[in-house]
Amino acid sequence: MFTKEELVEFCENANKNYLSHISIDCVIFGFHEGQLKVLILKVKNHDEWYLPGGFVMKAEPLDTAADRILKERTGIDEIFLQQFHVFGDPERGKVHNDMYKDIMPDNWFANRFITIGYYALVDFENVRPAPDLHSESCRWYDLDELPTLMLDHKLILNKALETLRLQLSYQPIGYNLMPKEFTMPELQRLYETILDKKLDRRNFQRRILAFDILDRHEQPRKGGAHKAPYLYSFNVEKYQHALRQGLSGGW
Amino acid sequence: MFTKEELVEFCENANKNYLSHISIDCVIFGFHEGQLKVLILKVKNHDEWYLPGGFVMKAEPLDTAADRILKERTGIDEIFLQQFHVFGDPERGKVHNDMYKDIMPDNWFANRFITIGYYALVDFENVRPAPDLHSESCRWYDLDELPTLMLDHKLILNKALETLRLQLSYQPIGYNLMPKEFTMPELQRLYETILDKKLDRRNFQRRILAFDILDRHEQPRKGGAHKAPYLYSFNVEKYQHALRQGLSGGW
DNA sequence: ACAAAAGTGTTTTTAGTACACCCATGT
DNA sequence: ACATGGGTGTACTAAAAACACTTTTGT
Q1: Separation of CA A200 and C1' D15 in angstroms?
Q2: Is some CB atom of chain B closer than 8 A to the CB atom of A198?
Q3: In angstroms, how far is CA A153 from the centroid of its own chain?
C-alpha cells in the first residue's frame, strides 16, 4: 500500500496533525434502482476492500472530522451523519498492525486504533465517489454483493445497518436518500430494502402520511406506463421537527 | 488535585500503560427509596464533582476497561454496562488541560481527550462506593440534587438519561436495578422515576406481565401495613431473551 | 380488453387508555 | 369502620394489519 518513503512521510505528518489511537470509519448508504448500496473502497493492487475512513485532527471536533472524511470521499457535505458505535477490540487492527510493523517498526499504523463508527444516508445521484491515496476504486456495492471487507469493517457495517433499522421505527428517514421528488412506491421501496421485507402498499402510505412530513405535488409523474403516480417531496421544516421530536415513542 | 511529584509519576505511568487521548466515563444509576440516583465523586479540597472514569490500558478491550473502572468504584462487576456515546469536543477538557499545563507542560492531562460514555444500572444495595485517588468522597446523589459537575459531565449524564429513557421503550430494564425480590408497585416506582411521570397501576402491571420476564412467587410480602403484595423476581432466561429480541418494535 | 401500477377506501384485530370494584391490614 | 395500598377485570379508543375495489395507461 505504501512505499517505505511514503510511509515515513505519512507517519511524520500524521503524528503532527492527528490524534493517535483514534480513527473514524463511515458507513455511507445510498439508494438507487431499488437497491440499498454502500460506498466501499478497494486497496490498490490488493483484493481487499474497506470503508471510507480517516483520522481526527488535533483540534477538530469528531463530527467535523466525519464530515470532512465524507466530503473527501463523496464530494457532498451538510448531510445527516451520525455516530453510532465505537469499536475498540485491541485485536481489531492486528493484521494491519503487524504488516506495517515489518516495514517500519513503531509507526503510526502499528498502533492500536479504536474507531468511531459514523453512518450517513446520502442521495445516490449527488455523489461523485473519489478514491483516496491508497485505493484504486471507490464505488457503490449492493448490500447482497459485498466484497470481503478488511479488519472489522464487516462488523461495523452490520452494526450500522442494525442501527439504521432501529432508527426507522422512531425517526423519519429518506430525506437524504431520496431525490427531491419521488413517488410513494419509490419511498416504500426504500423502506422495504432497509427492512428487508415487503410492506403493505396501503398501510405504508397511510403511516407515512400520518407522519406529516411530506408535501404532495399537484402534478403526477407523466410518461411512464400505467397510472401516473403523484410526486411527493419532504417538507424540510416538518421533517426536522419530526427528527427532533421522534415519531411515536413508548410509555 | 496532584502535587507536582505525584503528577510526574502518574504521567510516566499513564504514558506507559494507557491509550493516550482516550478516556471512559461511567454514569452509574442506582435506585433506592423511590429515587433514581447517580454515583458521583468529589474532588479533594475542591467544590467540584465528577463521574467515575478512567483510562483504557494498551491491550484492553473497551468494555473490559469500563467494567474495571466500575468495579473499582463500586465493588460490583458482571453487570449491564453499555456504551452510549462518544464525547469529543476539542474544548471539553480545556479548563482541566490548562490547569495542569501550568504545573507541568506537556503532561498526560494537558492533552485533548475524547471520552466514551458508558452507563450502568446497578443494584443500590450491592454497591460499596469507593473513592479514587483524587476524590474525598464517592456517593449517590438524587437526580434532582446534583452538585455542579466538572467538564462536560453534566452533558454526559443527560445523554445517558436520554438513552436510558429510550431504551425503556424497547428493552426490559430493572434486572440490575432491583433487588432479587420485589413487588409490582416497587418496579413501577422505578419506571415512574426514570420516565419522570405517573403511570397507571393496572395498565403498568398488565404491560410488564405481557413481557413475560417475571416470575411471581407463592408467598406475598408479609408484615407491612395494608394488603400484602405479591413478590416477583426476574426470570433471567426470559429476561436475556427479551434483551436480545427487543420487546416490540416498529414495522 | 386487459394486465400492471397506482389511488382510495373498509373491516378486523390488537394494543393502549381510562376507569371501577373488591380485598387485606393497621389504626 | 375506614383509610390506604394492593389485586383483578371491563369498557372504550386509537392504531396497526388485512383485505377489495376502482382508476389510469400502454400494448
Answers
A1: 16
A2: no
A3: 12
Cell representation of residue B141: 446523589
Question: B155 CA to C18 C1', in Å?
Answer: 37
pLDDT at A73: 81
Tell me the pLDDT tens digit for each residue of A104-139: 767 888 789 999 999 988 888 778 877 777 788 888
Q: What angle do CA B121, B194, A173 make, to 5 degrees?
A: 95
| Per-residue H/E/C for A160-175 | HHHHHHHHHCCCCCCC
Per CATH, the architecture of A4-153 is what? Alpha-Beta Complex (3.90)
Report yes or no: B228 and B221 within 8 Å, Cβ to Cβ.
yes
CATH of domain B182-245: 1.10.10.10
Cα–Cα distances in Å, from B224 out to B84, B227, B232? Answer: 40, 8, 16
pTM of the model: 0.88
- What is the Cβ-side half-sphere exposure of residue B88, based on CA atoms within 13 angstroms? 25
User: What's the helix, strand, coil split of chain A in %, to 5?
Assistant: 40, 25, 35
- Phi/psi of residue B156, nearest 5 degrees: -60, -45
